[in-house]
Amino acid sequence: MSGFARLLRNENDIDFAKVWKRTLTVSAVLVVLTLGALIFRGLNLGIEFEGGASWEVRSSEVTADELSSALEPFGLSDARIQKVANELWRVRGETDSTAQLEDIKDALAEAAGIAPSDVTANAVGASWGSEVTAKARTALIVFFVVLFMYISIRLEWKMGVAALVAVAHDIVLTVGVYAIFQLEVTSATVIAFLTILGYSLYDTLVVFDKIRENERRATGLDSVTYTQVASFSMNQVLMRCINASFTSLLPVVAVLVVGRYVLGAVTLQEFAIALLVGLIVGSYSSLFVATPLVAYLKEREAANVDRQISATKRKSAEVDIGAALDEADRSRSVRSRARGEGHRVTRGTGASVQAPKVTVTKRRNEAPVATKSEGERAPQGQIKPRPRKKKR
Amino acid sequence: MLKNPLRALLGALVVGVGLLVWSLSVGQEPLLGLDLQGGVEVVLEPVDTPENLALATEDNLNTAVEILRKRVDAIGVAEPDITTQTGGGTNFIIVQLPGIENQDDAVALVGATAQLQFRPVLLDLGDVGGLQALTEIGDFGEEITNGGPDVSDLNAGVISDPNDTPADQSAIFFTASQEEGGPLGPRMLVGPTEFTGTALSGAEALFLNQWQVQVTFKQGAEGLDLFNASARKCFVEQPTRSCPFGRLAFVLDGVVESAPTIQAPQFESRNVQITRANGFPEDEARQQALILDFGALPLAFSDPADPGAGLVRTVSASLGRDSLDAGLIAGLVGLVLVALYVIWYYRLLGLAAMLSLMFSGSLLWVIVSYLSVSRGLALTLAGVVGLIVSIGVSLDSNVVFFEDLKDHQRRTGNLSSAVNKSFPGAFSTVFWANLATLIGALILYLLTVGSVKGFALILAIASMLDLVATYFFMAPLVRLMVSRFDERPEMFGIRKPTSYRAETAEEATA
């Protein structure tokens, strides 16, 4: 059976820990490269950020020279004239008054042989641009701080650090593509960058949730290391990650393809390129940047170092982690029953025995227990299945 | 997980379809932003001088918004959206006029740096014709031309640019036509500004035997004294050289709105009546009062096309329409591709996911339409892209559940129990991840400006609906499907284990 067939059946068993070092290196190199491009080439910022004026003229007949000569009376002979899409021209220059903006609009319309109302005109003052940029920057900082706190409370601060490093990695690489290829950054692209923030974070959180779930199952199991648990979790969520990014990418690819054949999709394409890069990088970073970082941070904890030592002693590299976790679940359920806690743990009422924080996961983690002990529980059948649902 | 899947599903369907039918029957639909239907956007920024910035208080900005709204209403815009934006030390006014036809007029109307000025009439081309007038005012000619426009310009048809003409110089302006929105009337030569609209505390249309306009000046040196100084110059029975015809013109944005004759050299009351021989028509009296009351913005704004400040954006209707079409086509194509893929991969589960997507999609339509009608939320291109992206994200939450489901099925071999066991965990994962998206979207909504705001709102609504659809629609539907086809996991895209896994499983049991 091919690896792909096994993947389809969730039977993949890849040792992610082996590739992590390499992927982290690759990511680090890419980040350095793109940061270099950002510093040395800079971004090709649209008028939204720099201030200035632009006009969009749609005509299949007009040439750049004709447009240029229409601009000459206004002293804009050095204006940048670009063909941004099939039949769509974008002219970028400077104006000093609303009247001039409108006059140039009329002149361009005349040159292209279209109605002035079919020309799109923009003029943005530098202060408005800096206002927009400043606000976006503030929003970004608040975003990072608040979500770091959120993840720290919901999961733990090490995961918060790793998730935000991954998000930053995604943003830097995506913005870097714009710097390397000198694509114009418009307000549309900024929105795409922000979308990537959200998407990347979502993706990483789903992965982390799985790691945490498995890590709780592995409590007291000193034969497997944190890294092994993380790698095992990666295998479990791999197909989800592939499917999720594929289904997210399909519409974006549709936008790009449609943009080539349908008029007026220039802005859409500006979104789509950023989204395409960002979604791919975002999925990649959840598995290959965020998770290794968490594993690295976690392995320095004293308890996890002990686990490493005992795992090396037992030479447990060969261990089937899935089976070990199942076994841990089973023995825990036997132990809890022996203590007379029985099904109350499953219902979450036994949570007072444990730290209150774990209530939710406790219930979920015990789920397989209930399945395994189906037969044993039969005599007390009436109490068992329903109360769990009532809770929700 | 909900107790009775069938009841939950029916409940969700009734609510969803009910809302959709209600929304469609009252004719609510999403408002399109100006990048999708064409239109004008202007951002006004106060002129950057200390005196002017001191005027940029919240009250003054709100007054300016009211004035702009009245001006915009006059040219007939379906859905004007005029708001203030307060930022780090600076305040902006954002005017959005989607779907407006006469874009140039709108830009001129909103973008013009309006100021109401009171100037003596030096020559009215409506009263005296052309060259003859020049000889009649011969004595004044030198005075006028000294620092002002050449009177011969009157005949040449030259009009002063209100933005370029200093207030203390003479200027030639058009007269406003009596008809609203009609062509501009004859030209008028007016002298230097005597005082500005800040001297007025208000104006209203009154009916006392006939319609008239009552202007109220501010007390003392700020108001009435200024007017009385002009009245002395202009008193019609003793006209002076600087006010030869005894008329004082109200000039708004370089257009002479009206030029009444001053009937007394001194006014004692702050309330001054403007009358006309046969009375004003009612609508004209109201119009005049409006101009005097609200005609002048309480502070000066920079020309929005100035490279230093503000913003002007005009989007042609055809380009907007094309963008919308392209967005819709791309969205549909994307949706079909996604549907093909998930149904191929997850079979019945994929079908459930697509139905769930349709469910949340129709709720999204209802909410966006409702917010469009009630709060003026406009769907921009950024919002459309947000929608396209949310297709993938909401499928993601289904995929989390499906993969968990398959995992449980693989371990226990029992599909029905796998559904019950995997949903709570998967939902919790999705819930907390969506909450993070929601927090992010809210931060963006609260802290950014312009199109990012609309996008963030759509994203926030979509991620909440994702949870609703997953919990109340998708999960019950999957449970129903599973209970119907319990014995056929392949219908849920669960493939038989490969030989490799089967062997190891056998070994384990042995």
* C-alpha termini separation of chain A: 42 Å
Estimate the strand proportion of chain B. Answer: 15-25%
Main β sheet profile of chain B: 5 strands, mixed, barrel
Portion in beta strands of chain A: 5-15%
- Going by CATH, the homologous superfamily of the largest domain in chain A would be Multidrug efflux transporter AcrB transmembrane domain
Tell me the layout of helices and strands:
The complex is a heterodimer of chains A (392) and B (510).
Chain A: H1 3-8, H2 16-40, E1 44-45, H3 47-50, E2 52-58, H4 64-71, E3 80-85, E4 88-93, H5 98-112, E5 120-124, H6 126-154, H7 157-180, E6 184-185, H8 187-217, H9 226-261, H10 266-299, H11 302-314, H12 321-338, H13 342-347, H14 359-365, H15 367-372, H16 374-377, H17 385-391
Parallel strand pairs in A: 1-6
Antiparallel strand pairs in A: 2-4, 2-5, 3-4
Chain B: H1 5-25, E1 31-32, H2 34-37, E2 39-44, H3 50-55, H4 58-74, E3 81-86, E4 91-98, H5 103-111, E5 116-124, H6 130-136, H7 138-145, H8 152-156, E6 171-175, E7 187-190, E8 195-196, E9 200-208, E10 210-217, H9 224-234, E11 248-252, E12 255-258, E13 271-274, H10 282-294, E14 311-315, H11 317-346, H12 348-375, E15 378-379, H13 381-412, H14 415-447, H15 451-484, H16 499-509
Parallel strand pairs in B: 1-15, 6-12
Antiparallel strand pairs in B: 2-4, 2-14, 3-4, 5-7, 5-8, 5-11, 6-7, 9-10, 10-13, 11-12
Helix pairs in contact in B: 1-12, 1-15, 11-12, 11-13, 12-13, 12-15, 13-14, 13-15, 14-15
Task: Explain briefly what this protein structure is.
The complex is a heterodimer of chains A (392) and B (510). Chain A has 392 residues and is an alpha+beta fold.
Keywords:
heterodimer, A: 392 residues, alpha+beta, Multidrug efflux transporter AcrB transmembrane fold, Alpha-Beta Plaits, 3 domains, 4-stranded antiparallel beta sheet, elongated, disordered C terminus, B: 510 residues, 5-stranded mixed β-barrel, 15 strands
